[in-house]
Write a structure and sequence with these properties.
- The chain has 65 residues and is an alpha+beta fold.
- It has one domain.
- Helix content is 25%, strand content 31%.
- A four-stranded mixed sheet has the order 3-1-2-4, with helices on one face.
- The protein is globular, with a radius of gyration of 11 Å.
Length: 65
Amino acid sequence: MDYYLTNAINGIGFTLHKDACKKVLLTERRFYLGYYFGEYNAIQEAKRVTSGMVVLCSECMKKPQ
């Protein structure tokens, strides 16, 4: 699955989204993280490439797609 990073709502850190997330589709500023077979690998890569905190999207990360 493809994963994207957006700026967090509070302005500090980033939010990790799946490609089918409605929130990421509405956001103009998004960063394509890559294709990963599992959420764990995507989370690890997001932590590696960012300098801030990474949080999971509350809508798309709670349900399987």
